[in-house]
């Protein structure tokens, strides 16, 4: 297996291709974060996942076709850094290495945070050492991904997606029937949600208060980050024709909507099901409480508790394996081979790929054990940093032919720096204290960071030389073929 086989695999059918990137997206966000957030904040959090759905419809409907067309024109494109190099006809390796280093670094941190969190959850549920849990998960993922490449993810994606959805539906039905609708509503009202039942279930209500304009912006904008996930965008390099994308898009969107609705129901019902336990803001404590309450309700409840544990592990594993695939592809193809660090004989490429996958997996495990106290918010911050760096850069490269490699590099760097700067740099005076720009605006860092990235890409591209005619001609050709 060469690097192209590792990254693109054999041809996938409509069902497999639709689920490949969809399961990666809904796994950690839909099966873990969404139920916890609905339980914690109320139904208003669903605006965030509406943003994900709208964003992914746009990506599938517009960006997917153009990324596929570029990959068909140059079959060597298997990663986003490779796409940037080809799109702007960069004769050197600086753009490619910059993009690769950024994607690699952030993806390693994301996997490490995921490993840390899933280890803590399983430790609280089963009493196993979190370190051992994380080690076993990383060993298994590294071994099968290193040997089979993306084929392992393609073939298993439909099974994982249907299994996770099935588990969520079964748990929802079980908890609803066990407690009863009247008692569930009564329990919800006895928690710290104020007002009427209609206010709690109303999508305008969030975290005990009505939503304001800035809340809508913050919640929906978090969904925009899905358009900057490297595994999602790289999966379109696998597609072979427009029909594969068109049919897969419909499967993906319908499944995602059903999945998110089911997961939101599980989160909402769990609030009433866990009463009178006080609401916790820890994801690991939430799943521990949920698991224990199910396990205490008899043999059938014990079975449901086992299903919940499977759901949690699958949710984290789908995100880990997708991110690890990106790490290995970028490191091996764009840094080691692209940077000509070592010469690899073709017959030994499979061995090198396996070793790189295993070593990177173990590195992520070691980093995860070096992390101190973390929360799910840490993961969201790094996802925001990656999304705000990749999403504006890829989108502008597909819609604006005047963009050049300098604008591309500026967009990548700006997105990387703007999220932490706008969120944590307390430079403005407000009510007698120093606060960040995001605090003044009352929104998260996603919208201002993406806006800054777009502006920097435009400014830098305009003040630097125009792209070569070959670049513009190819852009027009891609646009023309897509239109027709």
| Cα gyration radius (Å) | 23 Å
* Shape category: globular
Measured as a percent range, the helix fraction is over 70%
Strand order of the largest sheet: 1-2
Order of helices and strands: HHHHHHHHHEEHHHHHHHHEEHHH
Distance between the termini: 36 Å
Derived from helix and strand composition plus strand pairing, the structural class reads: mainly alpha
> Largest beta sheet, briefly?
2 strands, antiparallel
Spans of 5+ residues with little confidence (pLDDT < 50)? 193-205
Average residue pLDDT? 86
Write a brief structural summary.
With 484 residues, the chain is mainly α.
Keywords, separated by commas or semicolons:
mainly alpha, 4 strands, 20 helices, 484 residues, two-stranded antiparallel ribbon, two-stranded antiparallel sheet
Description:
- The chain is an all-alpha fold and 484 residues long.
- It has helices spanning 3-8, 14-41, 46-73, 80-87, 94-126, 130-148, 150-179, 181-190, 197-201, 213-223, 230-234, 242-273, 283-295, 299-337, 349-370, 376-399, 405-424, 437-441, 446-463, 469-483; strands at residues 205-206, 209-210, 428-430, 433-435.
- A two-stranded antiparallel sheet has the order 1-2. Strands 3-4 form a two-stranded antiparallel ribbon.
- A hairpin with a 2-residue loop joins strand 1 and strand 2 (209-210).
- Helix 16 (376-399) runs parallel beside helix 19 (446-463) and helix 17 (405-424) packs antiparallel against helix 19 (446-463).
- The chain is globular, with a radius of gyration of 23 Å.
- The model is unreliable at 193-205 (pLDDT under 50).
């Amino acid at each position: 297996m060469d690097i192209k086989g590792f990254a693109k695999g054999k041809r996938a059918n409509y069902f497999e291709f639709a689920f490949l990137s969809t399961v990666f997206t809904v796994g950690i966000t839909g099966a873990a974060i969404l139920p916890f957030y609905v339980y914690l904040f109320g139904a208003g959090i669903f605006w965030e996942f509406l943003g994900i759905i709208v964003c992914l419809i746009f990506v599938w409907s517009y960006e997917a076709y153009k990324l596929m067309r570029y990959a068909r024109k140059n079959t060597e494109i298997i990663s986003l850094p490779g796409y940037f190099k080809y799109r702007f006809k960069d004769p050197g390796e600086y753009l490619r290495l910059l993009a690769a280093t950024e994607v690699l670094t952030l993806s390693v941190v994301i996997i490490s945070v995921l490993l840390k969190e899933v280890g803590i959850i399983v430790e609280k549920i089963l009493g196993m050492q979190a370190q051992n849990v994380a080690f076993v998960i990383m060993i298994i993922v590294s071994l099968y991904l290193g040997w089979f490449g993306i084929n392992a993810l393609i073939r298993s994606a439909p099974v994982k997606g249907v299994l996770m959805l099935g588990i969520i539906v079964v748990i929802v039905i079980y908890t609803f029937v066990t407690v009863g609708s009247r008692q569930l509503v009564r329990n919800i009202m006895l928690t710290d949600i104020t007002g009427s039942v209609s206010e709690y279930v109303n999508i305008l209500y969030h975290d005990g208060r009505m939503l304001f304009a800035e809340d809508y912006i913050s919640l929906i904008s978090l969904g925009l980050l899905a358009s900057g996930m490297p595994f999602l965008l790289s999966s379109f390099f696998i597609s072979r024709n427009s029909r594969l994308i068109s049919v897969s898009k419909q499967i993906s969107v319908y499944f995602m909507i059903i999945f998110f609705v089911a997961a939101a129901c599980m989160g909402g019902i769990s609030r009433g099901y866990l009463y009178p336990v006080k609401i916790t803001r820890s994801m690991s404590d939430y799943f521990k409480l949920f698991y224990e309450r199910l396990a205490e309700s008899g043999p059938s409840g014990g079975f449901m508790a086992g299903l919940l544990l499977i759901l949690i592990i699958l949710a984290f594993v789908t995100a880990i394996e997708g991110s690890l695939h990106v790490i290995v592809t970028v490191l091996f193809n764009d840094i080691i081979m692209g940077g000509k660090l070592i010469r690899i004989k073709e017959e030994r490429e499979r061995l090198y790929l396996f070793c790189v996958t295993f070593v990177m997996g173990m590195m992520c495990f070691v980093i995860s054990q070096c992390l101190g106290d973390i929360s799910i918010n840490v993961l969201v911050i790094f996802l925001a940093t990656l999304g705000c760096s990749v999403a504006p850069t890829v989108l502008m490269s597909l819609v604006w032919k005047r963009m050049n490699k300098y604008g591309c590099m500026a967009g990548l760097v700006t997105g990387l720096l703007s999220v932490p700067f706008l969120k944590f740099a307390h430079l403005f005076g407000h009510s007698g204290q120093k606060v960040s720009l995001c605090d003044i605006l009352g929104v998260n860092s996603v919208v201002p960071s993406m806006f800054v990235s777009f502006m920097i890409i435009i400014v830098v591209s305009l003040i630097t030389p125009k792209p070569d005619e070959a670049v513009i001609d190819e852009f027009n050709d891609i646009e023309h073929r897509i239109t027709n």
